[in-house]
Amino acid sequence: MHLHRYEKIWLSFGIFMLLGFMGIVGYQTFAMGMGPPSHKETIDPQKVETTAPFDEPGVKQIGDNEYEVVMILQAFGFTPGNIEVPVGAKVNFTMTSKDVIHGFQVADTNINTMVVPGHIQKISHTFNEPGEYLVICNEYCGAGHQAMATRIIVK
Ligand code: CUA
Description:
By secondary structure, the protein is of the alpha+beta class. The protein folds into two domains: 1-36; 41-154, Cupredoxins -  blue copper proteins (Immunoglobulin-like, Sandwich), CATH 2.60.40.420. The longest helix is centred in the first third of the chain and has 27 residues, at 5-31. It contains one helix and ten strands, in the order αββββββββββ. Strands 1, 2, 3, 5 and 8 form a five-stranded mixed beta sheet that branches. The chain has a five-stranded mixed beta sheet with strand order 4-10-9-6-7, with no helix packed on it. It has one helix at 5-31; strands at 58-63, 66-74, 77-79, 83-85, 90-97, 102-106, 112-115, 121-126, 131-136, 149-154. A hairpin with a 2-residue loop joins strand 1 and strand 2. It starts with a helix and ends with a strand. Residues 76, 102, 137, 139-141, 145, 148 line the site of dinuclear copper ion.
């Protein structure tokens, strides 16, 4: 097979770049420990309701100005829904899904995460503006996906 000189140069360049990027990512992951966490906190999705903390979903005060929200996502809702948290408090969400992959996106904030069955998802946020925040599922999860929404009331 004959390859044109430019083609050889371009192929070599592509392979060189590929190996270079893989080397950088590999070095960051394995030598510097910068890989994303995986399988850190797992849960049996069939036993969500009997596994702590999901056996008691809700809003709990855990510090002076800190709250934990334990929330279960399932087709097509959030348990609990329409939660209330005080303005300016740090809110730690602990979430899991009972069935399929759902999304947890809170409008007007940078909260936007996937909630995967079998895994526990954690995300923290401080709501500095009072108001009603729309929460939507942004991962297609079935026929009722577009209706899967709730609110966070901050006051
Ligand atoms: Cu849950 Cu889309």
